[in-house]
Structure formats: structure tokens, C-alpha cells
Amino acid sequence: MARIVVITSGKGGVGKTTTSAAVATGLALEGHKTAVVDFDVGLRNLDLIMGCERRVVYDFVNVINGDASLRQALIKDKRTEGLYILPASQTRDKEALTQEGVEQVLQELSKDFDYIICDSPAGIERGALMASYFADEAIVVTNPEVSSVRDSDRMLGILASKTRRAEQGEDPIPAHLLITRYAPERVDKGEMLSVEDVQEILSIQMLGVIPESQAVLNASNAGMPVVLDDESDAGQAYRDAVARFLGEDRPHRFLTAQKKGIFGRLFKG
Ligand SMILES: Nc1ncnc2c1ncn2[C@@H]1O[C@H](COP(=O)(O)OP(=O)(O)OP(=O)(O)O)[C@@H](O)[C@H]1O
Ligand SMILES: [Mg+2]
């Protein structure tokens, strides 16, 4: 049985798709057979970031509608062994992802995969609810700014009340915080919230902090998940986050502006 992990945020444009691609690739690199599923009907960003957009023939909605089998729609990643992508449909019909259809596809994927990573669309409506409904675990992506943190807080409320697990009266699904686009110089200037601020407001376990990095844009232009760029700060930070997700204890890095020692202040004790 696969573990289903939703990558969600509330607010748009904070780095969910970048994170989905990075985490899925990172898990596959660690030897876990992983499928990454694009729930963003109408947009299709994931296949661009994974560099497989030209190979898309069938998509998630085709599988739900029975126009194609899951096997036909899944795209094998060209770089990383054990990694598969299920692209989103470009239909304008936001109702195309039915709960029964999604459940069926996730169940079928579950038989074959260790992890299923669900790339949620922005917002807290249908698409996002569908992406999180069947999740066993959530990674909540937040930028260090008030509006993003506020929307993530609303999303935490939804995760605690509107997932299948919540409806069945089970414990709420574990939610991990991933802060992305972190720029310590701007935190020092008071233009951004600090890691500590964000953590205090959301008070969930912190999986990692991904620095604001040109490497993310370069990687996405090249159609390559940034986690494969070992030289980059963002790539290394994503590798660390995946290792922590798998239970390893790693210190947080890239939290301070160069030559300023707030690291000690933030993480002492
Ligand atoms: N760590 C980072 N450093 C710099 N740019 C980043 C970083 N993370 C994401 N970005 C950029 O932010 C933009 C939005 O990223 P992404 O598409 O992953 O967000 P999203 O949350 O999936 O958006 P949407 O809500 O529209 O689905 C992209 O241009 C991406 O390159
Ligand atoms: Mg996205």
C-alpha cells in the first residue's frame, strides 16, 4: 500500500509544484517507487517542471473517464528510476475530477507504488479538496509572508476536518511545514517573516526551509526538478527535507544571511 502525500498551501504560486517535483524525485532517488499526480486541472505545470510535457498523450481525467488505462497515462521519468508522472488534464471542466474517480485511480496506484505525491492546485475549493481528501500525510508549503501563512492556517483547518480520515473520525493526518522562497537578508530587514514567526503561527512540525534561489528558475526552465541540482542551495535543501520526511535527523541550513549568526539564535535548544 502506498502512502499518499498531498502538497498543498492555500495560497497560489508559493512553490507547490516545484516541491511536488522535488519531493517525488527525492523519494525515488532514495529507492522508493513514487508516482506524482497533477491535480491542477486546466493548468498542467507539473509535466513542464518534470520536463515530460511532450510525452503527454493521456491524462488523469482520461483515466477517470475510462478513455485510457492508468498504465497508458503514466509517464516514466526519463532521468530517475522508479519515478512516474500522471499529468493533469487541460480540460476547462473543473468538475472532471470526481471523488469516486480520484479514489479509484489512487487505489490502483497504491498497489504498485510506495508513495503517491499529489500536487494540489491553489485555493481551498474543489480541486484542492480533491487532492487532499485521500491523503495520509500533508506537506504544507508556505512563503514567509502574512498572506501565505494565513492561507496555510486555513488549509490546516481543512486538513483537520475535510479529509476522509477526519470524516471517519480518525486522527487528523500529520501535516509538515515547508517554508519556501526564504530570503534571510529580507527577514533581517523586517520585510519577511522569520522561520520562528511562521512556525509559531502554524505550530506544526517543520520539514524544511528552501531558500529563494535562482537555481529553481533555471531548473524549471530546463525541465529538471531542482533537487537533481546537487550544487544548488535549493537542491540541497530539498534533499535534506526528503531525508527528514523519511525520518532522518538533519540540521536546517541556509537560514541566515551570509556572515550573520541568527542560526544559533533561532535553533538553540
Ligand atoms: N525556492 C524558490 N526560489 C525561487 N523561486 C521559486 C522557489 N520556489 C518556487 N519558485 C518560483 O515560484 C513560482 C511558483 O512556483 P510553483 O509553480 O511551484 O508554485 P505553485 O504553488 O505550484 O503555484 P500554483 O498555485 O499556481 O500551482 C515559479 O516561478 C517558481 O519557479
Ligand atoms: Mg502548482
Ions and ligands: adenosine-5'-triphosphate, magnesium ion
CA-atom Rg in angstroms: 18 Å
Compute the number of helices. 13
For the secondary structure, the number of strands is: 8
Uncertain stretches of 5 or more adjacent residues:
none
The CATH architecture is 3-Layer(aba) Sandwich
By helix and strand content, what is the structural category? alpha/beta
CATH topology-level fold name:
Rossmann fold
Q: Termini separation (Å)? A: 38 Å
Overall shape? globular
CATH classification, class level: Alpha Beta
| Strand order of the biggest β-sheet | 3-4-2-5-1-6-7-8
**Chain-averaged pLDDT:** 94
CATH superfamily: P-loop containing nucleotide triphosphate hydrolases
User: Could you tell me the strand content as a percent range?
Assistant: 15-25%
GO cellular component, one term: cytosol
GO molecular function, one term: ATP hydrolysis activity
Pfam family, one: CbiA
Keywords: ATP-binding, Cell cycle, Cell division, Nucleotide-binding, Septation
Task: Describe the overall structure.
This protein has helices at residues 16-29, 46-49, 60-64, 70-73, 99-112, 126-133, 146-161, 164-167, 184-188, 195-202, 214-221, 233-245, 262-267, and strands at residues 3-8, 34-38, 75-76, 83-86, 115-119, 137-142, 175-182, 205-211. By secondary structure, it is α/β, with parallel strands linked by helices. It has one domain: Rossmann fold, CATH 3.40.50.300. Strand 3 and strand 4 form a beta hairpin. Helix 1 (16-29) crosses helix 12. The structure holds adenosine-5'-triphosphate and magnesium ion (MG). Residues 9, 12-18, 40, 45, 121-122, 180-181, 210, 212-213, 216-217, 220, 234 line the site of adenosine-5'-triphosphate.
